[in-house]
Amino acid sequence: MGKVWRSLRPSVICLAAGLVAGWSGCVGAIGDKPPDPTITDPNATPETAPVETHMVRLTAPQVRNTYRALFGEPLVMPDLPQDDQLYGFTSLSAATKTIAPVEAERYEDATYAVLDQVWNDTTRRDALVGCPPSDLNARCVRDFVEDFTTRAWRRPATAAEIDALMDLANRIGASLTEPDQGLRFALAAVLQSPHFLFRVATGEPDADSGWLRFDSWEMAARLSYLITDGPPDAELREIAAADELLDPEEVRAQAQRLVDTPEARAALVRFFRDFMNIGRLDQLDKDLDLFPMVSETLGVSMRREIERLFENVVFEKEGDFRQLFTTRETYVNGDLAPIYGIEGIEGPDFVPVTLPDDGKRGGLLTTPGFLALNAHKTESSPTHRGRFVRISLLCQDVPPPPPGVDTTLPEPSGEPQTLRQRLAAHAEDAACAPCHKQMDPIGFGFENYDAVGAWRDTEHDLPIDAVSDLDGADFEGGVELGELVAELPRVGDCIARRFYQHATTHLDGLSERAYVDDLVERFVQSDFDFKALVVEMVVNGGFRYAVPAEEGS
Amino acid sequence: MKRWHPPRIARRISSRALPSRRMFLRGLAAGGAITVGLPLFEMLLNENGDAWADGEELPTRFGLWFFGNGVRLNSWLPSTQGADWQLPNDGELAPLLPLKDYVSVCSGLDVKTPRHPHHSGMSAVCSGGPHLKVDDVRDTIVSTMKYPSVDQVAADYFFDQHPTPYRSLEAAVTRFRGTDEGTTFQYLSHNGSLGGETNVNPSEESPQRFFDRLFGNETADPLIKQARASVLDAVGDQIVDLQPRLGARDRQRLEQHLDSIADLERRLGAPSPSCSRPDDPGTFPDASGDEQMAEKNAAMSDLMALALACDLTRSFSLMFSTCGSGAVMWPAGATNGQHYMNHTEPSPWTKQHESVKFTMGQLAYFLDRLKQTAEGASNLLEQCSILVCTEHTEGWNHAQDDMPILVCGKGGGRLRGNLHQRDDGGNVSKALLTALRGAGLPLTEFGHEQGAVSASMTELEV
Question: At B396, phi and psi to the nearest 5?
Answer without folding.
Answer: -65, -30
